[in-house]
Amino acid sequence: MRGFWSTEHVKAAEDRLLARTPEGALMRRASFGVATVALELLGGRRRVGLLVGAGNNGGDALWAGYFLRRRGVAVTAVLLDPDRAHPAGLAAFRRAGGRVASELPEVDLVVDGVVGLSASGPLRPAAAAHVAKVTAPVLAVDLPSGVDPDTGVTGGPFVEAHTTVTFGCRKPVHALADCGDVRLVDIGLQPELPGPDLMELEDADVAFAWPVPGVGDDKYSQGVTGIAAGSATYPGAAVLSTGASVLATSGMVRYAGQAADAVRARWPESICTGSITDAGRVQAWSVGPGLGTGLSAENVLRYVLDAGVPVCADADAITMFANNPDLWDARDPDTTVVLTPHDREYARLMGEEVGTDRVAAAKRAAERFNAVLLLKGNTTIVADPGGAVAVNRSRSAWPATAGSGDVLSGMIGSLLAAGVYPLLAAACAAHVHALAGELAADGAPIPASSLMAAIPDAIRSVRAVTP
Ligand SMILES: NC(=O)C1=CN([C@@H]2O[C@H](COP(=O)(O)OP(=O)(O)OC[C@H]3O[C@@H](n4cnc5c(N)ncnc54)[C@H](OP(=O)(O)O)[C@@H]3O)[C@@H](O)[C@H]2O)[C@@H](O)CC1
Ligand SMILES: Nc1ncnc2c1ncn2[C@@H]1O[C@H](COP(=O)(O)OP(=O)(O)O)[C@@H](O)[C@H]1O
Ligand SMILES: [K+]
After folding, report:
1. DSSP calls for 15-37
2. Model confidence over 246-273: pLDDT tens digits?
3. What is the pLDDT of residues 317-333, one digit of tens each?
4. Which positions bind K(+) (predicted)?
């Protein structure tokens, strides 16, 4: 699991660390890390440019320039605010033979030391003008300048980094925005940090959490999933949701609804019935995709909320909650619910747009509904009411296709039925879903049914990393 810490927590931890470290030692350690990565990226080429801002981020760039000079690299620095350039860094850089110029010459690599943790807003015009002329790959110090460190939001010009070298710990920007290849340099910060503000599951975490049958298991003992989705108008949603559930875990899937014939034809291993009241016992329900929002759909939603098992509520279920708040209020408050809106469903449910800070939006909704909230998108955010947040960045946008959400909700239902902790169930499903999309697409558009069919490949791929 990777952790990410907010600027507030990083700055407080850095202050504590600075208080017990000789002056300048942290910056030299950090910038030595920058220089090491720069040499690796240069691969024998010898011309580096530095864009140097007014704060310590610029100081890091200047000290990195100093170390590069000592390795014989030609380094030219552009000082964006010459009077406020880091004095010790600038003196060391000049001593080592670094050149200061008003424009970057032709170089093989640019080090972005414009702004780091204290950034606010997009690049200012002077910095933006220099960045616009850059053609060489950019190595960002701490984070790409112009991108918000806590939200990953860009509201104007920003640096597009080939690689980012960060120090002490990762920050939210590294999970929420494209920072290129992110390298972490240890400066001894970990002991000073509280628990992470965000987390991102890696393959090994997902493999560890994913339910695998034991020798003593049977089809019931692993948790039976119930799917309440689809309708006469939208039978496909039921087929996709049920299929995702069948493929995600071992054990049994029960389908209840108007698409029973279509589901039975495609998934003979599922136990299908036309009516929710005849479904039989399950350990979790996945409800909503293609269900409709009429009276009979409302009754289905009431039934699953009353079943005393965890519920994943998606699509039409979310719209019904938005249209009729009584439905939500009537549920047993102890029932675990995972809500999985996309942005428009979020706006319906919350009565406000998601906005640019998607993590804050997901946290607000999780708290308001006392539920796990999975906000869909290229970067999926999962927040639980206790304040924990997991993010999953999809490496491709191929999953942005009709029916893909139906697949996700079937997978979440399966993991909930197997007893996986709700935040982890949603985050693991998002991870495998994105990977299945990538594997199935392999560079060309795919329908959601192909994404669904790649679930076993994606599970195999994450499990391949475990010993
Ligand atoms: N503390 C530590 O232990 C360690 C810290 N380390 C390093 O320190 C960095 C944090 O340094 P920091 O706090 O000095 O501020 P920093 O990010 O350089 O920026 C401040 C200046 O930028 C300006 N500015 C703001 N927004 C801007 C924009 N959009 N576009 C352009 N300019 C903008 C703003 O200008 P002003 O508003 O004052 O005019 C201000 O003067 C951190 O990221 C890491 O690299 C490492 O050495 C490891 C040890
Ligand atoms: N740009 C994107 N890149 C990667 N994944 C995406 C992107 N847009 C959406 N997704 C994912 O695709 C799925 C879409 O779900 P949803 O909008 O509910 O679709 P549908 O209702 O058609 O099933 C979600 O899992 C979401 O995270
Ligand atoms: K930077």
Report:
1. HHHHHTS-TTHHHHHHHHHHHHH
2. 999 999 999 999 999 999 999 999 999 9
3. 999 999 999 999 888 88
4. 57, 112, 145
Q: Which residues contact 388 (CB under 8 A, 6 or more apart)?
A: 199, 423
Residue 406 annotated as lining a ligand binding site = yes
Distances (CA, A) of 391 to 217, 359, 410, 417: 32, 9, 20, 22
pLDDT at 330: 82
Distance CA 448, CA 450 (A): 5
Helix (H) or strand (E) holding 174: helix 172-176
Domains of the chain: 2-196 (3.40.50.10260), 203-463 (3.40.1190.20)
CA of 165 to the centre of ligand 3 (A): 9
pTM over 0.90? The answer is yes
User: Which residue is closest in CA terms to ligand 1's atom 46?
Assistant: 27
Q: pLDDT of 42-101, one tens digit each?
A: 999 999 999 999 999 999 999 999 999 999 999 999 999 999 999 999 999 999 999 999
> What does 31-58 look like in DSSP terms, one character per residue?
HHHHHHHHHHHHTT--EEEEEE-SSHHH
**405 known member of a binding site:** yes
CA distances from 385 to 336, 371, 382, 423 (A): 11, 6, 10, 10
Choosing from 241, 348, 379, 404 the residue with most ligand 2 atoms within 8 A of its CB, the one to mutate for a pocket test is: 404
Residue 145 assigned to a binding site: yes
Q: Pick from 176, 348, 394 the residue to mutate for probing ligand 2's pocket: most ligand atoms within 8 Å of its CB.
A: 394
Q: How far is the CA of 436 from the centre of ligand 3 (A)?
A: 34
ipTM of the prediction: 0.94
Predicted pLDDT of residue 329: 86
